[in-house]
């Protein structure tokens, strides 16, 4: 009988057993092999993610059971990694990218084997630096210069962007290029581009603003002359492009308003304002354009100017001042032609005063009242005659009419009637004599002007100043 517990490994051998007795013997060869205890547990750190061109930390087996004589692995490891068949250690530097795979390691001895699947992935080097030109300001409907990424590290497999770009711009997920023609206005925003590969990713925020096309060719009716207290016809802008808002500087004269949404100038000016340029600016996100509107606000033109007229003054006798009657504000007065010597004209008040020192035939003196809004004129008839030293007995009730006259005058107020008359020029020259018939005197051929009419009746003489016009 063969029995017991082998304590050593023994290769296969034939052991000859001989049975003996007195009669003889017989033999038999017993073949016996004593193997090691088979390994019964094998493990590695797993799964494992390595990076191309980066040395790995060795993967060492953990094994129990019998001593391992050799290790094997299948399939072959990615290039750059090595497998020690004596120790089962996986080491090295992977030189290729390898998708996730299971590599089966088998630990062997004479007693048997045990296996374990080591999961290995070899990723590319992650991209480590990404950048674009930024910030970027683009204009609606204008093609942009392409935005190209600058990237370092591992090769990029794909690009992504978030949020989506404004309409009209495109993003190439293979190259990371941003291109196109924006078709909308978009406020400033950050668009995050991510460059990816099997090793990881890197991101960069591209700042993009989409402005409108700047407005152009702004104009208004100009120059403009308005009148105080008179509503103006609104001034409307002519503009190319879209306008977000309008501005104006300096401020408009009181009573006029400026609409910052429409650019319209309207209202009723309440003050006088000298000529000035008001700069209107039309703005949008793409820029601005300006135009200078010239505005003058004049006063209300004076009107209804009048004086007492006609006027017959006497040489060397102070006159009663002639005062203007006027509606509206007057800045200054003027007169043409010049008044006869001795009379003065106040350009501030329009008053005519003084003592005439010369004889002057009938003439019209045009007074003009002026302000910034315009002017109004009135013709004052003035004649200056001589003082006649005649001892005249007057008819206190005598009347001559009409005066001024055009062709004839009538006489009334004399009991026995006027019998004859004489006509003198203001300088004293006798021009005409005649008999009065039916209290009427005709002067059809007499030139227009101021005359002295001397009337005779009942031993009395009456002198009247008359004006033919």
UniProtKB/TrEMBL annotation:
Asked whether the keyword Transferase is assigned, the reply is no
Where are its TM segments located?
Answer: none
Keyword check for Repressor: no
- Molecular function terms, GO-annotated: calcium ion binding
Instruction: Quote the InterPro entries the UniProt record gives.
Output: Cadherin-like_sf, Ig-like_fold, Secre_tail
- Gene Ontology CC terms, in alphabetical order: membrane
Signal peptide (residue range): none
Keywords assigned by UniProt?
Signal
Which stretches make up the Secretion system C-terminal sorting domain?
Answer: 400-467
Q: What is this protein called?
A: Secretion system C-terminal sorting domain-containing protein
Which organism does this record belong to? Flavobacterium psychrotolerans
């Amino acid at each position: 009988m063969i029995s017991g517990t082998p304590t050593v490994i023994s290769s296969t051998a034939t052991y000859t057993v001989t049975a003996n007795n007195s009669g003889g013997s017989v033999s038999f060869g017993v073949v016996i092999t004593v193997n090691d205890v088979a390994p019964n547990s094998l493990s590695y750190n797993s799964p494992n993610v390595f990076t191309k061109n980066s040395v790995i930390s060795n993967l060492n087996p953990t094994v129990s059971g019998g001593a391992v004589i050799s290790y094997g692995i299948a399939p072959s490891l990615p290039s750059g990694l090595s497998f020690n068949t004596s120790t089962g250690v996986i080491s090295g530097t992977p030189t290729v990218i390898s998708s996730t795979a299971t590599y089966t390691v088998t630990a062997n001895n004479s007693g048997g084997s045990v296996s374990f699947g080591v999961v290995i992935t070899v990723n590319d080097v992650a991209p480590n630096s990404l950048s674009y030109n930024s910030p970027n300001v683009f204009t609606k409907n204008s093609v942009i210069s392409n935005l190209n990424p600058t990237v370092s590290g591992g090769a990029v497999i794909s690009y992504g962007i978030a949020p989506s770009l404004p309409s009209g711009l495109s993003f190439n997920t293979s190259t990371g290029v941003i291109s196109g023609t924006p078709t909308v206005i978009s406020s400033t925003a950050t668009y995050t581009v991510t460059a990816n590969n099997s090793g990881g990713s890197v991101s960069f925020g591209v700042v993009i603003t989409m402005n409108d096309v700047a407005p152009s060719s702004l104009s208004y009716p100009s120059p403009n002359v308005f009148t105080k207290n008179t509503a103006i016809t609104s001034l409307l802008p002519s503009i190319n492009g879209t306008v977000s808002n309008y501005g104006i500087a300096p401020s408009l004269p009181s009573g006029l308003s400026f609409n910052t949404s429409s650019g319209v100038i309207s209202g009723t000016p309440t003050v006088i304002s000298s000529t000035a340029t008001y700069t209107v600016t039309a703005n949008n996100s793409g820029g601005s354009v300006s135009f200078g509107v010239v505005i003058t606000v004049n006063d209300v033109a004076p009107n209804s100017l009048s004086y007492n007229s006609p006027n017959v003054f006497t040489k060397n006798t102070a006159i009663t001042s002639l005062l203007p009657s006027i509606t509206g504000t007057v800045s200054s007065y003027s007169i043409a032609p010049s008044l006869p010597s001795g009379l003065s004209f106040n350009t501030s008040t329009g008053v005519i005063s003084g003592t005439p020192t010369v004889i002057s035939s009938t003439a019209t003196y045009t007074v003009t009242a002026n302000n910034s809004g315009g002017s109004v004129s009135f013709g004052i008839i003035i004649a200056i005659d001589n003082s006649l030293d005649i001892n005249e007995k007057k008819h206190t009730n005598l009347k001559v009419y009409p005066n001024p006259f055009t062709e004839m005058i009538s006489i009334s107020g004399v009991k026995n009637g006027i019998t004859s008359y004489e006509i003198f020029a203001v300088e004293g020259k006798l021009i005409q004599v005649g008999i009065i018939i039916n209290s009427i005197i005709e002067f059809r051929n007499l030139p227009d002007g101021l005359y002295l009419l001397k009337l005779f009746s009942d031993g009395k003489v009456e002198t009247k100043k008359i004006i033919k016009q």
